[in-house]
Fold each of these.
Amino acid sequence: MLMVVLLLACSAAAAKGKDTTPRYKTAEAKHFTQAEGVELSPVFGDYFYAELREELKKAKLAGEVIGEGETVDDTDAPQSIVITGTITEYKKGSVVKSTLIGFGAGMRSLKMDADVLRRSDNQHLGVVHIHVKIDPRWNEKTMAKFAAHQIVKDMKEALKAQAK
Amino acid sequence: MTSSVRFTVSLFLATFFLLFRASAAGQDPKPKPENTISVHLGDPVPAQKFANPPKFWISEVIDRSGNPQPMLVLKERGGIFLDRQPTVIVREALEESLRAANLLATDANSADLVLKIYVFQFGLAQGSQLDFFGKVEFTVMVKNPKSRESQEVKAAGTSIAKGAVLKKNIQKNVQDDVEESLRDAVRNFLRGQQLKDAAGALRKSMDAAPAATPNP
């Protein structure tokens, strides 16, 4: 009986600890630019932007995830972040190589750099570099999904490290 | 003997099934009450605060999507249709939010700024096969009726909803997705820096115009 009570108390304390308020008031994700030579469809940019916003909402990094170009109150600006980025490299991959060789050969790959800036003074709060590899048979929207998830995960860690 | 009868029956059934599928695939889905969704904004979107709040009036909403069936949201699984034209839904959503913020003029004559809206996309866009990608995109020509000057403001809203297998769940997820993207687009317009700049510049030009005219 005592053990059950102790376990319940511990789980309640853990749940209370997890229920933290977001560090930032607002987060604004911008459409990522494409470096020269990157050949991705224009739809990819929109889909990735939507996925990034969904991931930011899920991560609860900010109280509100606002759309591109929306206004923020001056009082909230120091606690608000803006996420910009560039797609630096995209390789289409090869189904033949992937099937015949395997072991990661012929994978479709995407490299991105993302910057997290403070809205009030444009100060860099973190830089994230990601490299996503997927099977060449999967479409580029699936790649956008993985990339958005990875960016937000790395960004959360980078901001946590910067705060320490 | 029995096996040959069995084979003939299965062949006949397979041919019949394939023919039925082919004829069903060739037909365009038709709007029915059970495959029609009603998209509404829900609560009005809070607008941004203007230093000198103008009164807006929506003069026209024009469909520029180039879609021959603007009310058809999803073609697969018997189709999903909207109950009203996208232009009507967008007008209603904007008017509701402007009215709630006390920014809607009572008529065109009393308006400080007149809005002409061009809807470029409303509904689902091409997403991954795992989910639904909702997208609403429109451009607004903000015009000062007195000075006749105008400025363009763009707004876009996106939303991603998870996919589903059952028809009922697909319909619910698509409706939620389109409503969320509409809300996002209206919010993007009403709280956007572009609208703030356009309203400021158009009203400033009107204030400056009488001062610039020389006294007789």
Amino acid sequence: MTATKQAINAFIHETGGWAASQLEACTRCGMCAEACHFYQATGNPEYAPVWKIELLRRAYEQRFTLVGAMKTALGLNKRITDEDLKHWSELNYYACTVCNKCSMVCPMGIDLGSLLHDVRAGMAAAGMVPTELMAAVNKQVEEGSPLGMTSAVWDQRIEWVVDEWEVEIPRDVKDADTLVVFSSIEVMKFPTNIAAIAKILNKAGEKWTISSKAREIVNFGFYEGSLEHTKLFLSRVLEGAKELGVKRIVVTECGHAYDALRWHAANWLPEANDFEIIHITGLLGELVGNGRIKLKPGAFDDDGTITFHDACKIQRKGGHIQEPRDILKILAPESFKEMTPNREESVCCGGGGGVIAIKVADPIRYAAFELKIDQVNKAGAKTVAMTCSNCRLQYADCVDHFKLDWKVTGLAQMVADALVE
Amino acid sequence: MNWNAVLQFARGPFFYTALLVFVAGMIYRLVTVIGLGWSKDRVPVKGSKAGGVVMSFLKGILIWPFIPWVKNTFKRNPLIYIGGGLFHLGLFAVIFLGAAHMLVFKSLLGFGWATLPLPIVDWLAAAGIVGMLILLINRIIHPVLKLISGPAEYLAWLFVFLPMITGYSLTHHLGPPYEVMYSLHMISVDVLLIWIPLSRISHFIFYFFSRAIHGQEFGKRGVKV
Amino acid sequence: MPEETIAQSLKKKGVSRRDFLKLSGALAAAMGLSNVLPVSANGLPLNPGRGYSMNRIIAKALETKSRLPVIWLEFQDCAGCSEAITRSNSPTLGNLVLNTLTIEYHETLSAAAGFQVEQAKQDAMQKYAGQYILVVEGSIPVAEDGIYCVIGGRTAIDILTEAAAGAAAIIATGNCAAYGGLPRAKPNPTDAKGVWEIITDKPVVNIPGCPAIPEATAGTIAHFAIFGTLPELDNLHRPMTFYGVTVHDRCLRRPFYEAGKFALSFDDQGAKNGYCLYKLGCKGPTTYNACASIRWETGLSFPVQSGHPCLGCSQPDFWDGGGFYQGQSAPLEHPEAVAVGAAAAVGAALGVGATLINQAKKKPKGGEK
């Protein structure tokens, strides 16, 4: 029973009034299921968000409530077993991207995404994380990145981008204003993004730099749910920022990293508040808004309908909902069409939360993507723009899998391509 | 069976005890939940936490129950929206705007208020009962609800339904004589009062916590609630 | 036993044959006898067939029966029930009934007093043993061996038990004799009881009310006088004829209840319009009595019609029924602010205790993160 014990200890340790009051508020109405794209796509009732956090609720009830104590005394309690942990590990890691759409529809407003995160913390403590995900975490611990981007590989890639696209990328510049931290997904899979962002910042005259210490913004500890690993990866970024004496940190096109650094880090590592933290999407909006960069109007109006995919952690949970639209209105006033639903109610791509790293979960991931296919087709679009490179990875993989004829691009890429020189 | 004696007991000492158990129980629940500890949020705010909280409550209490299309998910959940909405509407109308219950509050608080005409309260009570039945049927046949529902859910439904159905029969003189129905109504109300702190019916209090948290989480990120 | 029949004594008083039949009809109507079958007491077949209406049956009975002796005892009472029946504005019915009886003993109505009257009662009880009707008015105190009601040196319990032994029928008139009435109200210092709580070996008919409706008492006595049996009773021993429906079910203001139009105070527009008195504390819905149909003073009026909410005076313990002007739906007992505060404090204290236990559980054990 050791795994279970460890999980339960973790659940209990992290259950405060914040979690408890929400667990108490749930009326088992089941609305959250209707918002979950995994449930919608597969019809598997176990994918209902309320069911995913059931172990947390059970542990809470059994340990902390009078009713729980009474049920234990009467022998009415279902004790949590190792088998339960294994089963729920699959539900929580394979079939959840922590997109948090469930909390938008909950009539009680329960923040299921965060509660699910708490469940993952228990899983991590019990060693019940899916092997593939854990392997990636360990890689990031040892090598600094889950995608095999060691310091040497990083150096090499950045050099190559500088040469190939002829952009200047300041490195380890002390007392620069802004530290830009790329994700290994961009460095390894979408290097044009690096060039694009460099081009934009240089055009805007920004005093920026990248850091060899803070070279990875991706945080697989956050997917795993382990606070220890999350803090480790965050502190690498913050230490790099501190060493260079920058005033702000820009998170490039990555979603969960922004969630972790901007909306949580300060509660774990107080030094996070020494910096202003912003997402590249927000920065782009700022630069366009105050005229530091100028865009060619209608630059993308001649290539068929273009639609925008809201990334869960950047739009719904990040707040950068209007900036992409403002930019797209300039870049493609005629051909930009919204998907439905959109903005904070948008549907997740299905690949976030670490799901795409888990091959075993592929069937579920592809099933969820069918909802997106439907949405894009209804919008009549052939090009999909987005602000998160994990979404881009998912879209690219699915376009390949489903043999679709779409173009998948990033917003930064579009802005760079439409820059007025 | 001396129903007059049963009625006196149900309206007298049983109600007295039930009300005290209700008060003590709810305070206990609140203290234990709050006592589990709260941590300070040091993350800088982008939008407005307070604004988010206000919108969260407005949408939760004032707008959402009445304009379901505010939420895009209505299309996928019409049963729960309609059933849940009818039930709550009917329940609140009868409890707070029905003459009979207003007199109960008057005796407890010392002041009363204007109430709706009986035929209107009647329709709303019937709507509430229909809502409850819709919710029960949904809970039994929907795969997700079947999975997540256990004895706690069905008992909670029963203990809320009994006062509604006995109250309705009472007012309309359906079935057994008035004092029998009144006794059953009072007994079911007393049982409900005791059951609330022991069950999820207490969500009416925790609602305020979770909706405030919801408002804060989205408000601080500048996202529309 | 007086020799002449009831009909004969009526004829002596100058009541014509036609009037006699009319009176019989009125009596039948008052007793609610539209299809009660007279039984062997009258030597009539079960199925009278054509030509036999209720009036004629009653008339026949009155013609063949002689007047019944009645012993009327009063204990912890106000004599209101006696006042109601004797001063009632129904000369025909009241007098008719009184003409079917000879009242051998009645404290209030007797001209004489003292030990001679007591002796007369003893004589009557002996002479008519097994034949007289015992009517009781007022409650019987049992605290301290019944010392709170002593008449002529004897306790009420004693007097009642003695009189009940030789009675052919026992009728408890008024709420006090039926259920204890006013003396039983909290704190009930005399431990007042109704007749049926003391006399348990014989059937007791309760005619509750405060006072009892004269027609109810009269009609029940007449039923026994004519048919020799007690009428059909409910589970509180009240004759179904008069107590079978609630005041609410026959109330003239019922449409206003249904429409939700209530008087909010005694002189507001609602009251002037004759709206329902539910919000002013009317206990009509749970009160079984004939007030709304038979009414008082030969159908002149009844409390609700005159603008006062029903007190529920024919129900047991109506004095403790939650206040005459408190809504019927309100609870009978509710905790005071102090009790609620105490409950909240208890809940909070238990909560704090539970919190301490929970916080201790939360502390990570050695080796854990």
